[in-house]
Amino acid sequence: MINRVHQSNAPVQNDVDLKAVSFEWRTRALTIVLLVIAVTGLPAYLLPIANALQTGQLPPLLWIYLGVYLAIIGLTGWPRLGFHVRAWGLILVAYTNAVASFARLGMAGSGRLYLITVPILATIIIGARAGFLTAALSLVIYAAFALLAQVGVLANWLTVQTNPVSFAFWLEAGAALAVFLITVVGLLEQFQQLQVRTLAAKQQASLERQQAAAQLVEAYQTLEQRVTERTQELAALNAIAAVVSRSLDLQEVMRAALDQTLQVVGMDGGIAYQLDDATQTLVLMAQQGLSESFAQRMSHLPLQRALAGQRVDVTQPIVFHVARDYPDGDLKDVILSEGLQLVVGVPLVAKDRLVGGLVISTRTPRSLTPDESALLSAVGQQVGIAVENARLYEQAEQVAAVAERSRLARELHDSVTQSLYSITMYAEAAARLLTMGKPIEGAAHLRELRDTAQEALREMRLLIFELRPFALEQNGLMAALQTRLDAVEVRGGAQVELQVEGQEHLPRLVQEELYHIAQEALNNVLKHAKAQHVRIQVRFQDDRTCLEVCDDGLGFDAARITATGGLGLRGMRERAQRIGAALNIESTPNQGTRVSIQVPTLAHGNGATT
Predict the structure, then answer these.
(1) Out of 19-23, 129-133, 243-247, which region has the weakest mean confidence (pLDDT)?
(2) Within 10 Å of residue 4's Cβ, how many Cβ atoms?
(3) Which residues contact 113 (CB under 8 A, 6 or more apart)?
(4) Are 274 and 356 in contact (CB under 8 A)?
(5) Three-state helix/strand/coil letters over 200-235
């Protein structure tokens, strides 16, 4: 549209400019010619008159010369007469001068010069038509004097008697004059047209450059505006992505996504829904900017009813101008009673599957632009992925909780429950023996009961510790090991010792694997070794990190256990392999156990940073 407007206006503008420039140039040229004639003509006109006055011979033609000169002075000094009056006035006085020159001097005077000069000046100053007109007039004047010469009248007027007065001579000179005038005027006319075309081309080129510059500026501004808009959209998407990725809590994700989306598109309020796949019902997760009664009324909506007959397109928002588009019914009445004019449903999509929706609305009549629609589509996909991740995380937590409950149930059944059952049996046997009058045997059963109860207590402390939050992420490896010793071993009556040499500098993965290996070793001590003293030694060296868990318990046959893979040895070795460490277990029956692991410093780079 802009190009068409420029192209239609360009010729008119160019034509006006050319006329103005040409007229200004012609006006200046006319003024210069008049000034030159007025200055240079002073001696040419006044000296003959002065000489004639001295000799006493003052022919009437000299008074004509004086009138011509005075006319030129008037045309020069009176610019208000206008361009055409002054130009044709100059032509008139020039021809008057030519006629006087022919009548006084014949061909010896300047008459032919005027007949030649006037058409040239007329062509340059007024135009080609004036040039041809004055050329014809020059030839008419010349022809008239040629006829006067033929009939002999001219000879009586001439003051220079040596002039040729034959018609043949005048005819020959007139032919040359005609050819010269026609040629010169034609060439000048062609030259002016060429000059006009050249000026027009320059003017058009200049105008095109201006148009190109204007279009370039406009294109740059448009591009700059589009870049700004895209930057704002990307910033909005990044902000939404940052907000919804802060948490895996589904309700918090929905609330944050709704708040950020309302800010991006400038809407008044909205509701965030999760889709219940089983019932195909939209369930309210968060709302903002709407009344509580309205939110309660809209808390559970069947998907098809919410769509109001529209087909779900997971790539595009659904836009309702409520009064015009929404089907009549109680739901429309509820929406209108809330004062909502525009309602936009944004599908939340994950893996091309609908997982929920954001329903945003405004109480001010407006339309949704294509850019806003595209932005909301991107928001729906971004938030949909976050919603799906939060849902999967909830499922994973549920599965993990079920698995942990199952593990604890197995642990309770395998260890604590059996210990409690043994306590019951020992107590019953001790009571029976005491009743039978066998205190020594009864006391032995009571001691067995005590030992079994202590073992069950240690197992319970271990299970309780495992239910507590994992301290490694917050406090590091040494603090986590100390927490474990204090919570389980120390409370179980064992003497513990934690020795540390050097500065802890391990990546997170290495810390986790070392902790789990040490924990498995401590669990074996608790469940099987019946140790009184437990020592953990950690040495942080430049080329390696060494960890040892030693106890003075019952010990075992290391060769047999290694072959069978008991005591959690397989899991310990797998963890050691993951961090490139060497695991060594030394044990002898009744002489305790020593578990050592060495992690080369080069292997630290394989773990995640802290």
Answers:
(1) 243-247
(2) 8
(3) none
(4) yes
(5) HHHHHHHHHHHHHHHHHHHHHHHHHHHHHHHHHHHH
**Residue 571, pLDDT score:** 79
Strand partners, 594: 550, 586
**What is the average pLDDT across 57-75?**
74
The answer to whether 554 and 516 have CB atoms below 8 angstroms apart is no
For residue 410, what are the β-bridge partners? Answer: none
Tokens 């540390």 locate to: 500
Tokens encoding 76:
């020069």
How far is it, in rounded angstroms, from Cα 229 to Cα 375? 11
The pLDDT, as a whole number, for residue 70 is 79
For range 218-227, the mean pLDDT: 79
**Tens digits of per-residue pLDDT, 173-195?**
566 566 555 655 655 566 666 66
Query: In a 3-state reduction of DSSP, which class is residue 289?
Result: coil
Instruction: For residues 288 and 286, give the distance between their C-alpha atoms in angstroms, rounded to a whole number.
Output: 7
Give SS3 for 242.
helix
Could you tell me if 13 and 207 are in contact, meaning their C-beta atoms sit under 8 angstroms apart? yes
User: Is the distance from CB of 178 to CB of 139 less than 8 angstroms?
Assistant: yes
Q: What angle do CA 36, 37, 38 make, to 5 degrees?
A: 90
**Comparison of pLDDT for 231 and 332, the residue scoring more:** 332
Provide mean pLDDT across the span 352-374: 82
Between CA 339 and CA 149 the distance in angstroms is: 108
Find out whether 257 and 271 touch, Cβ atoms under 8 Å. Answer: no
Highest mean pLDDT among 76-80, 259-263, 590-594: 590-594
pLDDT range class, residue 404, cuts 50, 70, 90: low
- For residue 92, what are the CA distances in angstroms to 64, 88, 456? 13, 6, 139
Return phi, psi of residue 389, to 5°.
-60, -45
Q: What are phi and psi of 126, to 5 degrees?
A: -100, -45
Structure token pair of residue 349 = 């999509």
**Helices 128-151 & 83-105 angle (0-180, nearest 10):** 20
Whether residue 548 is predicted with pLDDT greater than 90 in this model: the reply is yes
- The strand pairing partners of 283, in sequence order, are 274, 300
CA–chain centroid gap for 367, Å, is 23
**58: how many CB neighbours lie within 10 A of its CB?**
14
What are the phi and psi torsion angles at 341 (to 5°)?
A: -100, -40
Q: How confident is the model at residue 168 (pLDDT cuts 50, 70, 90)?
A: low
Average pLDDT for 536-548: 90
d(CA 84, CA 75): 11
Contact 598, 580 (CB under 8 A): no
Please tell me the predicted confidence (pLDDT) of residue 550: 92
Sign of CA dihedral 149, 151, 155, 157: negative
- Write the CA distances from 244 to 251, 254, 352, integer angstroms: 10, 8, 19
User: Treating both helix axes as pointing N-terminal to C-terminal, what angle do 2-55 and 83-105 enclose, rounded to 10 degrees?
Assistant: 30
CB distance 576 to 583 below 8 Å: yes
pLDDT at 484: 77
CA–CA distance from 277 to each of 287, 493, 537 (Å)? 21, 54, 55
